[in-house]
């Protein structure tokens, strides 16, 4: 299961509205090879549910995760930070054994 914090939810709603997207747009969270730690996160708006997607809804935000990525993302919390130490979405992933300094890639 992937969850979102209240801050992440508010930012997702704000970005959807800013881009002129309606509530039918879910968040697709995926893991791809790459980055300085070997695996990196991919986050985007999507309306196309795929047959192998695991669908979660948290705080009114629908989240699509493909079956392969779910193995890496189970228990992950999506947060948003706008503080001095960084700005953007952050993944709190209990499966990551190492995370790079920018927080965009990880290894297991």
Automatic annotation (TrEMBL):
InterPro entries: ATAP, ATAP_core_dom, FeS_cluster_insertion_CS, HesB-like_dom_sf, IscA_plant_cyanobact. Pfam families: Fe-S_biosyn. One of its GO terms (biological process) is iron-sulfur cluster assembly. Gene3D superfamilies: HesB-like domain. This is Iron-sulfur cluster assembly accessory protein. Residues 2-104 form the Core domain. GO terms for molecular function: 2 iron, 2 sulfur cluster binding; protein-macromolecule adaptor activity.
């Amino acid at each position: 299961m992937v969850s979102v914090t209240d801050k992440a939810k508010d930012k997702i709603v704000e970005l959807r509205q800013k881009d002129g997207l309606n509530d039918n747009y879910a968040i697709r969270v995926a893991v791809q090879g790459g980055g300085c730690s070997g695996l990196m996160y991919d986050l985007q708006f999507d309306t196309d549910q795929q047959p192998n997607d695991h669908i979660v809804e948290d705080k009114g935000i629908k989240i699509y995760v493909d079956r392969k990525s779910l193995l890496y993302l189970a228990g992950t919390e999506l947060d948003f930070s706008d503080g001095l130490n960084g700005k953007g979405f952050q993944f709190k992933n209990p499966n990551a054994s190492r995370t790079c300094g920018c927080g965009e890639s990880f290894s297991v």
